[in-house]
Specification:
Lambda Exonuclease, Chain A; single chain; Threonyl-tRNA Synthetase, Chain A, domain 2; alpha/beta; six-stranded mixed beta sheet
């Protein structure tokens, strides 16, 4: 049974090997939501919709390269970029430079696509079989978000490794298809916005070269080597490097060694397979570091083990139910991944089968497999996966993940809020200092683990801060959710109970503190810049509120006052080092739509009763299929990720909260 490793996991290991001082590159830092839009914009331009695509607009203008570029820019702005900037205006108002860089990168991308279409124009005219507009030929040759995979087997490994990933774009041209008119079989494109690491990007590019050239069950060292690979980054201007097959092949063996170590299949840890030593990659000074033992790269928590026979039998029953009873031909692509809460079965569709054929059988699968909740079906790293509740569910504790919390800055403290662990045991955090995570909205019904998750978030902040770098404003309508925090030195004000103290007045004071800090900024762009300039700690203030809907369900006047303050804080508070973490039991339209929806970007969706509630919070269903007790979906810039929130025990509360 092969071990599955994702390109993103290898990339993380390469960052660690390169070292923090060399990982940033020379680009400006980006914002996650802008990076997501950037990738989506390329797909929007070239992918076919309703028999056409956005490139078809070139058929209606003069055959002139400059005209083509201007036409694409106008179209992508009016139909893609402009509407998104308008909708998210409040969330992006304090990241103007990044928005400008994003638009400049979009313009550079339009230039690049127009150049590609122009370069293949002669070929489309001379070939009888290709008498079609160059933009259509380009659309056929350029695919985005393409799933790739390959099977790796090396001497000295005790198992094979399946490498999976999604290439940003792949161009397949046979003759004069590139911008420099060189013959290639294909060209893989990595689209980067903002900061880049040349070393790590080259390593990731080599992985895609490997996957594009390797057929299943073929050793990497025996695969054919063809094709040029282009690394394109936008900083925001376009930077392009072309690497031939020989260059990429010379770097590949070091990466295979690293993959073996990450997967745990390298039987000889002291001596690399085949006697290889030296740097991972050495190309024009890109990477010149030793392969480091990836401590923590693949955590081995107590629940992370090989599948039991019961787990394997469940997978067989899953396939049998779909294939035999409902005629949906599928097969297992490998053993299940054993997470603490659920088992993830990678599924391969049979010929002619569609994902929808599996998705519409979730209720039948729930009955046949005897599940508490319907199975969760999604695409993970280009592979169709079915998540099924684990019959022997394990508990993740706060102590299990404490060592994974990022190291705090001595002057700023820690801005990372633990959200949960993924199926491999990696801790996922939200960074309050970033635009896409500046405020968090959580929702979940009774038994979902919502209050426990809020306590986890507080504990994660406390253990990475001191009272000089963090203060908490805690609003507790239930009066018992945060009892252990009474008298904590981290409190900005004593615990706020709405039946004793008007919450609108407390939020008004917080708004006044925000205004005071803005006066202190005096030209600084953020809380971090202010602290760096003054060299004096200014504590980050995090307002935590459970049962937000209860606050706005009292009088109309009180609701308006609270929503007005939330709107102000949500739109402006991040730069002043003030953040909101709000939770509600019922994510109804009257609760979510409005100030919360437009000003709170990050969402934590725990188990909910209805798919409609999930749509209100996450813009898509899924939370109604969760298993409760901390099983959650985390959504920021991209699609929701399924995580398990660690449990903060009573002993943890006493130790961390101090009472």
């Amino acid at each position: 049974m092969s071990v599955t490793i994702t390109v993103s996991e290898v990339r993380e290991a390469l960052y660690r090997a390169a070292g923090s001082g060399r990982s940033k590159g020379d680009g400006a830092p980006s914002v996650a939501v802008l990076g997501q839009w950037f990738h989506e914009a390329v797909g929007w331009l070239v992918n076919e919709r309703d028999g056409s695509n956005s490139l078809s607009v070139l058929a209606d203008v003069a055959e002139n390269l400059d005209v083509w570029k201007q036409t694409l820019m106008a179209r992508v702005y009016s139909q893609f970029v402009g509407p998104r900037l308008t909708t998210h205006q409040a969330a992006l108002q304090d990241v103007g430079p990044q928005v400008l860089s994003f638009w400049q990168a979009i313009q550079a991308t339009c230039d690049w696509i127009a150049d590609l279409a122009w370069s293949i124009r002669p070929a489309t005219r001379t070939r009888v079989l290709h008498r079609q507009p160059p933009w259509r030929t380009l659309a056929e040759c350029l695919t985005t978000e393409e799933p790739l995979s390959c099977e790796l087997r090396e001497p000295g490994w005790n198992d094979s490794v399946k490498l999976v990933g999604i290439a940003d774009a792949v161009v397949r041209l046979t003759n004069s298809g590139t911008t420099n008119d060189q013959p290639v079989a294909w060209c893989a494109i990595e689209l980067k916005l903002g900061q880049t690491s040349p070393a790590v990007d080259l390593g990731q590019a080599c992985l895609y070269h490997l996957m594009l050239n390797s057929s299943e069950n073929l050793a990497a060292s025996e695969s054919s080597d063809s094709g040029t690979l282009a690394l394109i980054s936008f900083r925001p201007q376009r930077h392009e490097q072309l690497f031939d097959a020989a260059t990429l092949t010379s770097a590949r063996s070091r990466l295979i060694d690293l993959i073996g170590k990450l997967a745990g299949v390298d039987a000889v840890q002291a001596t690399p397979p085949s006697g290889r030593t030296g740097p991972i990659i050495s190309e024009a000074g890109a990477i010149d570091e030793q392969v480091k033992s990836p401590s923590g790269a693949k955590p081995q928590p107590h629940w992370f083990n090989t599948p039991t026979q019961a787990h394997l039998d469940l997978g067989k029953k899953l396939v049998s139910t779909l294939t035999t009873e409902y005629g949906v031909t599928v097969s297992l692509e490998g053993p299940p991944i054993v997470g603490p809460t659920f088992l993830r079965f990678p599924i391969k569709l049979g010929s002619g089968m569609k994902v929808a054929a599996v998705q519409k059988r979730v209720e039948e699968l729930q009955l046949r497999l005897g599940l508490l909740r319907p199975p969760f079906i999604s695409i993970d790293n280009g592979v169709l996966v079915v998540d099924v509740q684990r019959p022997d569910r394990q508990t993740v504790h706060f102590d299990d993940i404490r060592s994974q919390l990022p190291q705090p800055d001595p002057r700023l403290g820690g801005s990372h809020v633990p959200i949960g662990v993924d199926i491999y045991g990696h801790l996922v955090c939200a960074n309050l200092a970033t635009t896409e995570h500046s405020h968090i909205l959580a929702a979940g019904t009774t038994g979902s683990g919502k209050s426990e998750w809020l306590r986890l978030a507080i504990a994660g902040l406390i253990v990475t801060n001191t009272p000089e770098t963090l203060r908490l404003l805690v609003i507790d309508p239930k009066r018992n959710a945060f009892h252990a925090l009474r008298g904590s030195p981290f409190l900005w004000k004593p615990l706020v109970f709405p039946d004793e103290q008007p919450v609108a007045n407390v939020l008004k004071e917080l708004g006044e503190e925000m205004d005071r800090r803005y006066r202190q900024l005096d030209g600084a762009d953020s809380h971090a810049q202010l602290v760096a300039r003054s060299n004096v700690p200014l504590p980050r203030i995090v307002c935590i509120c459970d049962e937000y809907r209860d606050l706005i369900s009292r009088s109309r006047d009180e609701r308006k006052q609270i929503e007005d303050q939330i709107c102000r804080l949500g739109a402006k508070a991040r730069a002043a080092g003030i953040h909101l973490i709000l939770a509600t039991q019922e994510p109804r339209r009257e609760t979510i739509k409005g100030p919360l929806d437009s000003n709170i970007p990050a969402r934590v969706g725990l188990w909910m009763q209805k798919a409609q509630e999930s749509r209100m919070l996450l813009s898509e269903p899924g939370a109604e299929k969760l298993l409760g007790h901390g099983d959650l979906l985390f959504k920021d810039a991209g699609p929701p990720r399924r995580l398990q929130a660690p449990l903060l025990t009573e002993a943890n509360r006493v130790a961390v909260f101090g009472s």
